[in-house]
Amino acid sequence: MGKSRARRFRRAPPGPTERRDGQGGPEEEEEPAAELLDKLQHPSAEVREYACASISKLLQQRHVIPAFLQRDVVRCLGPLLMDHSLPVRETAAGALRNLSACGGFEVCDDMVTNDIMTPLVALLKECSTGLDANQLSPKKCRETNKNYIEDIANEAINLLWNICECNNTALYIFNKEGCLEAVLHYMKKFSTNVDLAISVANCLQAVTEDNPDLLSSFNASAQQVLETVMMCPESTMKHILLRTLIAGTIWNIKDTIPPGSLGSMVNAILKIFSESLAIDAGETIIRMNEAEKNRLKLAAEAETEENMSDVVDNCVLSEDDNMEEIPKGKLRRENDVSDLLPSDKWELKEVTALLTAQQTALEIIVNMCCSEDPSDDEWEELSSSDESDLFMENSYNEGSGLLMTPLCLSDEVHSAFLNNLIPKKILEKTAFPNGVALDICMHNPSWKPLIKKLNAVQCRALTCLHSILLVSDVDCLGGASALQSLAQHLSQLVFSKTEFPTDTEFLEAITSALRALLQTMASKNISQCMTPEQLLALCEAGIHSSNVSVRVNVVSILGISGSVLAKGQDTAETLKMIGKFLLEVAMKESSLVVAGEALDALFDVFADGEEAEKAAIQIKLLQTLKEFQPVFRMRMRKEGKGQCSTDQLCVLDNVKMNLKRFIAYQETLGKTP
User: Fold this and answer.
1) How far is it between the farthest Cα atoms of the chain?
2) Which CATH number fits domain 525-672: 1.25.10, 1.10.10, 3.30.43, 3.40.30?
3) pLDDT the model gives residue 15
4) The predicted structure's pLDDT at residue 131
5) Percent of the chain that is helix, strand, coil (3-state, to 5)
6) Which helix (H) or strand (E) holds 438?
7) Which of 311, 395, 443, 460 has the most other CB atoms within 10 Å of its CB?
8) How far apart are CA 432 and CA 164, in angstroms?
9) What is the average per-residue pLDDT within 467-492?
10) Hey, how many other C-beta atoms are within 10 angstroms of the C-beta on 1?
C-alpha cells in the first residue's frame, strides 16, 4: 500500500507541577471539592493559599477533576491569579497548571471557554513589568531566597504552554494580546534563572509551531533575544536543553530569517543538536550517580559535625543563662558546608535535562526532514514511485560513516547535516541504553523514571532514521554496504535479546525503520541480510501487537522481502510460508487497514516468477482469494466508513480493485500451457 509516511512530532505539554513544602502532604485529609472551593473566598490569605495548594494536589488525580469542574473551579481559581497575596497567586497558578496538564484537551478547552486567558494574560504582563521595576526586594523572601515574581511567572508560563498547546483560541489570544513581548522578557533572565528560561523556551516552541500569524511579531529585537540565548556558553545539561529548545523555536520561525543568513542559522541549529546528541547519556548517568553519592556523603559528614557543635554550644550556654540563645537555623545557615553544595537532586535534574534535550533534538530533526513536505495527495504520488528523478544528487563525505541527506531540505540543511555528523550520532542513539546505567536507575527509585526517558530517546532516534531513509538516495546513505550494515544493526536490535521485544513504542519505531530500509534496498536490488526465519519470527510476534501501525509494518516488511525472494531460485517453500501467513492475516485480521495491507503484500510477493507460481499453486492462492473477495467487499461496505479515514478508504478502494485484477491475472496463469 505504498511506503510509510514520515512522522511529525508536536511538543508534549508539560506535566503537573511538583508539590512544594507547605503545599500539603499525604498525611493530610483530602477535603471535599466544595469545601476547598469555598475557602478560596476566605479573607485570610493563608487560608486561600492553603486551599489553592490542596486543590493543586488533588487535581493531579484525574478521577477528582470532574467534581471540581462541576463546581466551576476555573472561575473560582482564575481571579486569584491577580490576588494581592503573591503566595496565593503562585499556588493558584500551580493548581490551574495541574488542571490543564492532567485534564487534557477537553479540560483546556473548558478553561478557555471559562475565560482563563483574561487573568492569565494580565498576570503574565504584570510579572513581566515587575522584573524591571525595583519590586524584587520586598517580594523576595529573605529566609528562603525565594523570588516570588519569577516563581509565579514560571507557573503561569507552564499554564500558558499547556493551554496554547491544546486550544487554538488560546493561541489566537496569545497573538492578539501581544503576549510574545512579555514572554520574551522572561527569557532575559536565563543567566540567573535557567528553570524559568526553559519553561519559556518550551512555551515558545509550542506557540511558534504552525502559527504564521505570530511571525510578524518576531522583529530584529525578538530574534536577538533568541540568538543571545542560543549562543550562551554555559555547559550544564540544563543549558544544553535550553539551547536545544531555542534552536527548535528558531527553526519554527525560519521564514523570518533573511535568505542570506539562512545557511549560518541552520548550521548553528544543527551544531546545537550535534552537541546534545554527542553526549553519552549512559556514561552521564553513571557519573552523576557517583556525584550524588559523594554529595550525600559530604552532607552526612557535615550533619554529624553540626550535631557535635550543637552539643558543645549547649554546654557553654548552660554555664551562662544570661547569654542570648542563637537559633539553630541560623547556626546551620552560617556553619553548615552543605549550604555550599548544589540543591537537592541536582544530578538527577541534570541527567533529566540531557535526555529531554536529546529527545527534543531528535523530534525536531524528524520535523525538519518533512517540514517542506508536499501535500497529502502529492505525497501519495511520491511514495508510490521509485523513479530516480525523485532523489537529490548524491553526496558522500568520506570518514563520517552512514550519511543521510534529507530530500526535502534546502542545500543549506544538506550541508549542515553532513558537517555536524548528525546521521552518525542518530545511529548511535538507536542502540539499547547502557546496561550499567539501566541497573543504576532500576535500583534507585528516584532515578527509575529515567529508564522511560532512555527508551524514548532510542525510539525517537529510530523514528528519525526512518524519516531520513524515506527521503534519501542510496549513495547519500553510504552505498549498498552501509545499508547492509544498517540492516544487520536493526536486526540485532530485534533479535539480540533472549525475549522478543514487546514495548509498543519500540516496535513501531524499529519496524518503521526496517520497512523503509528494506524498501530502499529492494528498489535498488541490494541483497537483504535478514534470513526468512528472522523475518517470519518478527512478523509472528509483531502481528499480535495491539498497535495497528506495528501490524501494518510487519505485513509490509514480509511483502517487501517476499517479492525479493520471488526473484530468486529454490525459494518456493519460503514463499509458501509467507503466503500462508499473509492469507491468514487478510482473512482473520480485525483491522480492515491491516487486512488490506496483507492483500497488497500478497500481490507483491506473487506478482511474478516461477518460484512464486509454484508456491501459489501449492497454497491454493487463487481459490482462496476468489472465496475471500466477496467477504472483503462486504467488510469494506460495513466497516469502511465507520473505522477508516478518507485516505485509508481511498487506499482500500485501490486494494479492492487490485484484488479483482490479481485474481484475473492468476486465472490467466492457470490457462497458460
Assistant:
1) 120
2) 1.25.10
3) 62
4) 80
5) 70, 0, 30
6) helix 435-442
7) 460
8) 35
9) 85
10) 24
